[in-house]
């Protein structure tokens, strides 16, 4: 199993555990609804960019997640 596969399994497991243990009104979707009431354009943008990233629909230079990864790699290679 590759590292990304393990990361996906960990994410799914964490979400399932959280959703099973959450109190009424505190599911992740309930949180998104609250955020939508305050900043609908920002929530939609974050969801859209995340979905586009996961589908590799953004060019690498425009993908903010790829940008964060490149910055991390750049600073990892620099001596302390």
Describe the structure.
By secondary structure, this protein is mainly alpha-helical. The chain has a domain at 39-80. Helix content is 74%, strand content 0%. The chain contains four helices and no strands. Helix 2 packs across helix 3 (40-54). It is extended. The protein starts with a helix and ends with a helix. Pfam families: DUF7427. InterPro entries: DUF7427.
Topology:
Layout (H helix, E strand, L loop, with lengths): L2 H19 L6 H11 L1 H15 L9 H14 L3
Series of secondary-structure elements, N-terminal to C-terminal: HHHH
Q: What is the 3D shape?
A: extended
**Which radius of gyration do the C-alpha atoms yield?**
16 Å
Helix content: over 70%
The number of E-state strands comes to: 0
Distance between the termini: 33 Å
Low-pLDDT runs of 5+ residues are none
Largest sheet, strands/sense/barrel:
none
Mean pLDDT: 94
Q: Determine the structural class based on helices, strands and strand pairing.
A: mainly alpha
| Proportion of beta-strand residues | under 5%
SS summary, helix count: 4
């Amino acid at each position: 199993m590759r590292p990304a596969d393990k990361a996906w399994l960990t994410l799914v497991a964490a979400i399932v555990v959280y959703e099973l243990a959450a109190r009424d009104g505190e599911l992740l979707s309930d949180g998104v609804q609250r955020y939508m009431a305050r900043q609908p354009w920002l929530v939609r943008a974050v969801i859209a960019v995340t979905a586009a990233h996961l589908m590799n629909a953004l060019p690498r230079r425009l993908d903010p997640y790829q940008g964060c990864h490149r910055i991390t790699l750049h600073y990892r290679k620099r001596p302390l």
